[in-house]
Amino acid sequence: MDSYIITIGIFIAINSIVVSGLNIIVGYAGQISLGHAAFFGIGAYTAAILATKAGLSFWLSLPVVIVITGTIGLLMGLPSLRVREDFLAITTIGINFIVEAFFMYVPFFGGALGIGGIPRIEFFGTPLHGFAFLVLCLVFLVIALFISWWFTKAWCGLACFTLRDDEVAASTIGVSPVKFKLLAFVIGTAMAGIGGALYAHYMRFISASDFGFPVSVMMLSMLVVGGMGTVWGPILGAAILGILPEVFRPLIDYRMLLYATLLLLVIRLQPGGILGDNGFVKSRLKAFSRGGKNEK
What we know:
mainly alpha
């Protein structure tokens, strides 16, 4: 049971890292992305290839993973400068399918057989697994949370908030949509790449289907449920949608139906997410604070 709980914790931590990156793109910069699993997969495949074919350790390959996923994110972010809303959503979905097909049909990436034999992460010669790997994932999660928090305080984050609320007004006061939209894509996709590298070394086998469009839907659901534009929302969403499938494991064949139903309920009842401005948590805190003031 302890190993089972640790495994769930590892997946929640990895998903939280990836969804935190998605939050920078969607929640902070206001760009629609329905293909974030593609960058999750690019990070995983880059780490796997560097480990199995180049013999690089996780620590040596991680900077390469960040650079590659960030660079591809920069290139994939270019369509956001020309298309918006529904058209941008369709474009990101297409990117996800293209990347998945690339992994599936190019022999260099293992094709339909995937890539196996990925070594464990070692720390001073000691392979990490179980609780030690969970601690490693939590360390990277803390770094991801710090980046998200820093982004909300830095000038680049404030510029993205302005673009999200009104791009035309932001442009008139000198905020460059090109610069800050692409910056959000680079940071968000690089964080997804880190999560992908951790996933590859933990699973030790990956295939193209691990990073398909349903995974992108799952990640967006985690963000919407937790609260877009909040630092802690990705963790809450990843925890809820990471635990619920285990609780309802007998209904695993209906997982996507459950995700879609939960997503619709949140959009209808909690449009900003549980931790959003008008979400359940903040509403209860405001009511509690008012009650305390009335008593005084």
